[in-house]
Design a protein that fits this description.
The structure holds two protein chains of two kinds. Helices cover 39% and strands 26% of the residues of chain A. Chain A is of the alpha/beta class. Chain A folds into two domains: 165 residues, Periplasmic binding protein-like II (D-Maltodextrin-Binding Protein, domain 2, 3-Layer(aba) Sandwich), CATH 3.40.190; 97 residues, Periplasmic binding protein-like II (D-Maltodextrin-Binding Protein, domain 2), CATH 3.40.190.10. In chain A, the strands form two sheets. Chain A has an eight-stranded mixed sheet, sandwiched between helices. Chain A is globular and about 60 Å long. By secondary structure, chain B is mainly α. In chain B, α2 runs antiparallel to α3, α3 crosses α5 and α8 packs antiparallel against α9. Chain B contains nine helices and no strands. The longest helix of chain B is centred in the N-terminal third of the chain and has 35 residues. Chain B has a domain of 148 residues: MetI-like (MetI-like fold, Orthogonal Bundle), CATH 1.10.3720.10. The chains are: A alpha/beta, B mainly alpha. At the A-B interface, α1, β2 and α8 of A face α4 and α8 of B.
C-alpha cells in the first residue's frame, strides 16, 4: 500500500507540473545532440534489468538499451548520464524534464500511454515456471497433470493465487515475501516450481547453469518499452529507429549479445531478404 | 548466490561505506542548516512582531504538518518546474533542512518561553542590549532545555535521510537495496543497514549527552 500511495503522490506532483508551458519548439533530439550525452532515467536495484555489478557499475538489459540509443546518437555507447530513479519516479521524471528518456522495465499500459509516449517494445515479459533440473516434474504438462499435489512458490501479492491458478488451476500456492525465499523453497523441496517473471527466472538460470530448467510455458504477457515525453514525435521516431535497428538491423549483434548475457538465450539472426516486420 | 554473507560483505564494503558516508553527510548538512535556520525561526516566534510571527507560524505549521516524503518530492520536482534545476542531493538536503528547521524552531520557542520573564527584566534593568540579553542570559538557559529534544530531532533526520532514496540519492538504504538485488541476501544486508543507522543515531545521542554534561550547572 505504501508503494501505491507514494506513486500517487508522485503522479499528482507531476500532473500539477505538466501544465508548465512548452518553451522552444526544437526537438529533444537536437538538444541531446548539442549536449553531447544522453540523460537516461533508470533504476539500480533490479537484476537483470538495471543493477550494480560487484565493482559498482550499472549494468543490465535496460542499461544496454540505453547504450544502443547512445551509440545511435553519438557513435559512442558510453555517452550516457544515468539518473537513478525509483519505479514511482519513472513518469514524473519524464514529464518534468529530469531525463531525456526512461528505460526501466516499464510495462506498457493504456493509462500510462496517456501520460508519456512509449517507444516500440524491446522485450515481452511474462510469467513462467521454473523447475529443478533433476526434479519430479519434467515440464508444464506434468505439473498440470499432477493437480493439487503440486506446490508452487510465488512472491506475495494480492493477485498471486489467481495468477498461478490461471496456468495451474489446482496447484497449491505458497506465497513468500522476498525473491530469495521463492528460490529457496524450490531448492529445499518445499515447492515443486517457482512462478515469477520469466526474465528473473532466465537470469537465475544463467547464474546457476544446469541446476534448473524452464517448464516451457508462459502467460500474463506484458510489453516493456522505453518512454519519452509526449508531443515530440521527432525524438520518439529517433529512439524507435535506434531500437528497431537493434532488434532487426545493424545493431542486432549488440542486442543479441545483451540478450544472451542477461537471459541466457541465443537469438536467431533476423531473416535476410524480405523484412521480418511484414511476415 | 552460493557465496556466504561474509564474502558478499567483503565485496560490497566500499559500496556500503560510500552509502554510509552519503547518509551521514546528508544528515549532518540537514541538521546543521536546519538547526541554524531553526534558531532564527524560534526567535522570530518569540520576539518577532505580529506580522513576522504570523508568517513564521504559517511556515512551521505547514512544514510540520507535511510528510517529509512530500517535502522531498516537492523540493525535487517543483524546483525544476520553476527553473532552478536542483540535483537530487541538493533538493533532498534542502527538504530535510526545511523540515528540521520547523521542528528546531518549535523546540527553541518552547525553550525560550520556559525562561521566567524576570530574567529578561533583570537583564534590562542592568542595561543589557537585546543581543547581549539573548547571548548571555537567555540562550545559555534555553540551550539546556533545548538539547534533549534537539537530539531527538537529529535522530529523526538521520532516519528521514532514507527517503532520499526515492529521488535516487545513493544513500545507505538505496546502496543496500542495490547489493540485495545482486545477491538476494535481504535479511542479512537489511539488518546490517539497520545496525549502521543505529550506530549513527547512538553516536548522536552520546554527543548530545556529552554536550549536556558539559553545559550542566554545577550543583
Amino acid at each position: 500500500m505504501t508503494i501505491s500511495l507514494r506513486a500517487g503522490l508522485m503522479l499528482a506532483t507531476a500532473t500539477l507540473l505538466a501544465s508548465a508551458p512548452a518553451l522552444a519548439q526544437t526537438s529533444k533530439l537536437d538538444e541531446v545532440l548539442k549536449r553531447g550525452r544522453l540523460v537516461l532515467g533508470t533504476g539500480s536495484t533490479n537484476a537483470p534489468w538495471h543493477f550494480k555489478s560487484a565493482d559498482d557499475k550499472l549494468q543490465g538489459f535496460d542499461i544496454d538499451m540505453g547504450r544502443i540509443i547512445a551509440k545511435a546518437l553519438f557513435g559512442d555507447p558510453n555517452k550516457i548520464e544515468f539518473v537513478n530513479q525509483s519505479s514511482d519516479a519513472r513518469i514524473p521524471n519524464i514529464t518534468t524534464n529530469k531525463v531525456d528518456i526512461t528505460c526501466q522495465f516499464m510495462t506498457v499500459t493504456g493509462e500510462r500511454a496517456q501520460q508519456v509516449a512509449f517507444t516500440i517494445p524491446y522485450y515481452r515479459e511474462g510469467v513462467g515456471l521454473m523447475l529443478k533440473a533433476d526434479g519430479k516434474y519434467s515440464d508444464y504438462a506434468s505439473l498440470k497433470a499432477a493437480g493439487s499435489s503440486v506446490t508452487v512458490s510465488v512472491l506475495q501479492n494480492v493477485y498471486a493465487e489467481s495468477m498461478v491458478h490461471a496456468a495451474l488451476p489446482q496447484a497449491t500456492v505458497d506465497q513468500y515475501d522476498s525473491v530469495d525465499l521463492i528460490y529457496q523453497a524450490l531448492e529445499s523441496g518445499r515447492a515443486d516450481a517457482v512462478a515469477t517473471d520469466q526474465s528473473s527466472l532466465a537470469w537465475h538460470m544463467t547464474q546457476n547453469p544446469g541446476r534448473y530448467k524452464d517448464a516451457g510455458y508462459g502467460w500474463n504477457p506484458q510489453s516493456y518499452s522505453c518512454a519519452v515525453k509526449r508531443g515530440d514525435q521527432d525524438w520518439l521516431n529517433f529512439v524507435n529507429t535506434a531500437l528497431h535497428e537493434a532488434m532487426t538491423g545493424v545493431e542486432f549483434d549488440a542486442y543479441a549479445k545483451s540478450f544472451k548475457t542477461w537471459f541466457g538465450k541465443d537469438l536467431p539472426q533476423p531473416q535476410i531478404g524480405f523484412p521480418v516486420e511484414y511476415k | 548466490m552460493s557465496q556466504s554473507f561474509l564474502d558478499q560483505l567483503w565485496t560490497a564494503r566500499y559500496v556500503i561505506m560510500s552509502g554510509l558516508g552519503m547518509s551521514v553527510s546528508i544528515s549532518l548538512l540537514a541538521i546543521l542548516a536546519g538547526s541554524v535556520l531553526g534558531v532564527f525561526v524560534g526567535m522570530a516566534l518569540v520576539f518577532g512582531g505580529a506580522a513576522l510571527r504570523f508568517a513564521v507560524r504559517a511556515y512551521t505549521d505547514i512544514v510540520r504538518g507535511t510528510p517529509v516524503l512530500v517535502l522531498v518530492l516537492a523540493s525535487y520536482y517543483v524546483s525544476s518546474a520553476v527553473g532552478v534545476n536542483l540535483g537530487p542531493f541538493t533538493a533532498g538536503v534542502l527538504a530535510l533542512a526545511i523540515f528540521c528547521s520547523s521542528h528546531v524552531g518549535e523546540i527553541v520557542r518552547g525553550a525560550l518561553q520556559a525562561i521566567p520573564k524576570g530574567q529578561t527584566e533583570a537583564a534590562k534593568a542592568i542595561g543589557l542590549t537585546f543581543t547581549q540579553t539573548f547571548t548571555s542570559v537567555l540562550w545559555p538557559q534555553a540551550m539546556r532545555q533545548f538539547l534533549p529534544a534537539w537530539v531527538n530531532t537529529a535522530a529523526e533526520m538521520v532516519k528521514a535521510s532514507t527517503l532520499l532514496s526515492v529521488i535516487g540519492v545513493a544513500e545507505l538504504l538505496l546502496r543496500t537495496q542495490e547489493i540485495i538485488s545482486r545477491n538476494f541476501l535481504s535479511l542479512q544486508f537489511y539488518f546490517l543497514a539497520g545496525a549502521l543507522y543505529f550506530i549513527v543515531n547512538y553516536g548522536i545521542e552520546r554527543f548530545g549527552k556529552y554536550v549536556e554534561r558539559k553545559t550542566t550547572l554545577p550543583s
